[in-house]
Amino acid sequence: MLEVKDISKKFGDFQAVDSVSFKAEKGEVLGFLGPNGAGKSTTMKMITGFLNSSSGDAIVCGASVNDNPLEAQASIGYVPENAPLYEEMYVREFLEFIGKMRSLEASKLDSRIDEIIKMCSLKEVEFQKIETLSKGYKRRVSLAQSLVHDPQVLILDEPTDGLDPNQKHDVRRLIKNLAKEKCILISTHILEEVEEVCDRCIIIGEGKKLFEGTPKELKEKSEKGRIQDVFRVITTGQQVQGVAV
Amino acid sequence: MIAQVTKELMIKEIKSYFKTPLGYVFLVIFLFGIGYLTFEPGRGSFFYMREASMSAFFRYIPWMFLFLIPAVSMKLWAEERKSGSIELLLTMPITVRQAVVAKFLASWAFIGLALLGTTPMIFTVSYLGNPDFGVIILGYLASFLMAGALLAVGGFFSALTKNQVVSFILTVVACFILIMAGSPPILEFISALLPKYFVDLFESLSVLNHFDSIERGVFSLSNLWFFAVTIFFWLFGSIILLNENKAN
Lengths: 245, 248
What we know:
The structure holds 2 protein chains of 2 kinds. Chain A is α/β, with parallel strands linked by helices.
C-alpha cells in the first residue's frame, strides 16, 4: 500500500535522506525511529508531497508522488510535526473545511464529522476556537483532520509528542483501532511506544536506513532486553555491554 | 471552470479576514481615511472643486492602497509558513497554482467589499448634482484593478518570507515604485543609469498612469491588459517561489 523507493533528499550539500526504501501493507503499523535530525520528518514530507525528493519515489496506493501527487495525496492522511492547525477556526468548522477540501460529498459531510468528533473525543470542544485548546486537544484535532476522508494510508509525525501519559495512552489506543483497516507510518522517539503499537520498525540515522525488523527482534539483540541500548548502539555506533548488532 | 478546492479555500480565506480584528480594522481605517481625505478642507478637496464628481475621492485611492493593501496581503503566505499550516494545506489534494489563485481571489474580493463600502459617496454626489456615472463606474473599475495588481505583488512578497513585517515593508516599497514609476524624480534617476529605451519601458509600468487614465474616463484595452499582465506576472512569481520551496 505504501512503498518508498530509494528516496533521497539533499539540502544544498547536506544529505538529509540517503536512498531510504521500505514497504508497508494494509493492517500494518510501521514505526519510524531515529535521533533528532535523522531525516524522519523530511522523509515523511516527501511521501506526502510537501517536499519534492531529490531522487527516488514513493508509491501510495498505486499512485506515484512524483508523477501523480494529487492522487497520492488523496489517499494519505497526514499529521505534520507539531500539529499545525488554522488556529482562528472553530474545531467543527475546521474539520468541515478539511472535509470539503478533501471533496467529501455535502450530504455525508455532517455525519462523517460527527463520527470523527466522537472517535477522537472532541465532543466537548466542538464549538471552541482551536487557539483556545490545550495541547492534547490540538493533537487530537490534528489527528481528526487526518482521518476525515478515511484515508488508506496514515502518516503520523510524532503524534504523541508533548502529551501527558493518559493522552498518550488514548492516542495509542486510537492508532491500534485504526490499524486494522489502514497502513500507518508513525515516527516517534518513545521506544516503549514502538513495542506497544508497531508491528515493524525502521531505524534511520543521518539519513540512512540502519535497521528494519520487528520490535521483538530489536529487543532480542540485547541480553537484558533493553531496547534503548540497542537503539543507541545502532544509531551512534557506541559499544554497550550485552548488545550485539 | 474553477475547481472545487479552489472555491472552498477561497471561501475559508475570505471568512478568515473576519475571524481576526484585521478585517474590521482595515475596513474602519480605509473607510474613515478615504472619507476624510476626500472632504478634507484643503486644496483639491471635494468642496474646493465645486463639482459633482468623485475625482477627489479617486485621487486618494492609490495612496490609501499603498499602505493598506500590503497589510491585507502580508499574511497570505507568511502566516501559513510561520505556523506550519502550509504543510497541512499543500499536502491536501490541491496544486500550488490553485492555492495561489484562491488566496489571491479571496484577498481581492475582500478589497472589493471595502470599495463597496464607499458607495454612499455616489449618493452624495448624485444628490448634489448630476455626476457622470460612466466615469464613476470606470473609477471604481480602475481602483479594483489596481487593488488586484498590488495584491498580487503583496502575495509574492508574502510567499518570499516567513515574517509578516518584512513582507509588509517589501510590499510597500515595491508598490511605491510601481505607483511612482512614471513620476519625474524616479524617471530622472533611471535615465541617469539606463538608456532611453528602459526609461520608456519603466514609465509604461507605472500603475498610477494606467489608473489615472481609466479614472479620467479614458478606458482602453491596453490599460486592462496592463493590469491583467501585472497580476498574472506576480501570481506566476508566487507559484514559482512556492514550488521552489518544495524543491529545497
